[in-house]
Amino acid sequence: MPIREPSRVSSGVPGFDELLGGGFPEGRMYLLEGRPGTGKTTFALHFCRAAAAAGEVALYVTLSQRAVELREIAASHGWDLDGVTVLDAESGGLDLGATDHTLFHAYDVDLVDIIDTVLAKVADVGPTRLVLDSAAEIRLLAGDALRSRRRFLALKHALGAAGITTLLLDDQSEGADDSAVFSIMHGVVRLEREAPEYGQVHRRLQIPKIRGVDNPTGYHDLRIAVGGVEVYPSLTMRLRDEGADENARSPVRDGVDGDGSPAETARGGHVKGLDAMLGGGLDPGSSCVLVGVSGTGKSSLAASYAVAAAEAGNRAAIYTFDERKRTLLDRMDGLGFDIRAIDDDRLHVEELSASIMTTGRFVDRVRRDVEAGVRLVVIDSLTGFTHACPGPDRAASQLHDLLAYLGGRGVVTLVTVPEHGLIGSATEPQIDVSYIADTVLLLQHYEAEGQIRKAVAVVKRRRGGHDQRVREFVMSDAGLAVGDPITDYHGVLAGAAERVGMARLG
User: Fold this and answer.
1) For the chain, which domains are there?
2) How far apart are CA 497 and CA 503, in angstroms?
3) What is the pLDDT of residues 177-211, one digit of tens each?
4) pTM score
């Protein structure tokens, strides 16, 4: 006879249930562990409130704080705990020896009495969900690992037999041996926080195990704000399960709409001559990296593609980490691109702060926009994206997954990559993404005849041929344009132009 799969129980935490394919398997015990301040209590309150919202009975047993403190935490998120029964030391009728104590101590109360009190309360209120906060107190009262394991097993069996889904909170106290708890749990959710020298605390979670559930491995960003916890699932699961959305793929070219007919343009047109350099334009599902030092026109060039996509009937989004939205709009207006005249639903520009926005949260926002119909994405810039992620290695991995996801959805992606320095002194970006991209455009300043000029070249195009000559790149109030090949100078892309047959200029 086949074994029936247990029903799923929602955690109540936005984004978390997606990781488990619908929520926690019902009637099991789960360990929610993390250092103080990682969000365990808030997560557990979500869990209880979801039960109350579904018309179920939830019981929150706290051995580490008073009920009034728990209600204050809930109130800080704008919540009440209506429908949630709270059992603490004071309301449990246990002799703590002093009325101002909020912890059970081994010399005051026997562990068996505590467990009997909890089970009696369970029998009295009949909860479908239980939070037990925390394992640290039970471990201290048990005195040794063997006794601790036996007590946790007894609780697990008693609560499981009653069909109660239980969250056991553990603050990972220093020196604690958690193997006795970890091994007998049906699943473990671990919350972590990293505090940088500057900026927001970075929070994430990991699911080391959930028996019988094919959950994605690795870390997932989370945020605690007024309103509770939000989890931002990584793209690992989607990259594994999702194929390309072929119906969503439509050509996105500079000044050409999805069916190949000319698109209406703003004053000055789009980037004249660039499609010819690219062998026809950017392909659906492709990624393009625009590399160059400050002032070479990377952001303007990327934004012009977003304008072209919007005017061709597609939806586009620009995410700018490096400059204010108003600055971008004013600059594009000066180049003949009136972004303000385009409906926000067609072309959305969002100003982001790398000190506030984590990469996981950003990736989740992009994913939601793409699922809402965005067909072209501009990320300006890689530096801002990297600063939003603790560590360049993790940033490179996140960007790789994001580009793979967007490519699978048929979305054209443009990423600006600043080189640091000025003419002749550029240094490499923090992480190299050129190997990931389908197309790489290099923009550079060079000095010629007493003027600062700009050059552009296609240094890589994975899908088909391209013009391999270095060309003039012109930015003016008439728009953006690609000019003639630069044949009278060499060393242009290195930022050290020399006239052919003459000594180095400058």
Assistant:
1) 8-233 (3.40.50.300), 249-499 (3.40.50.300)
2) 10
3) 556 688 899 999 999 998 877 767 889 999 999 99
4) 0.82
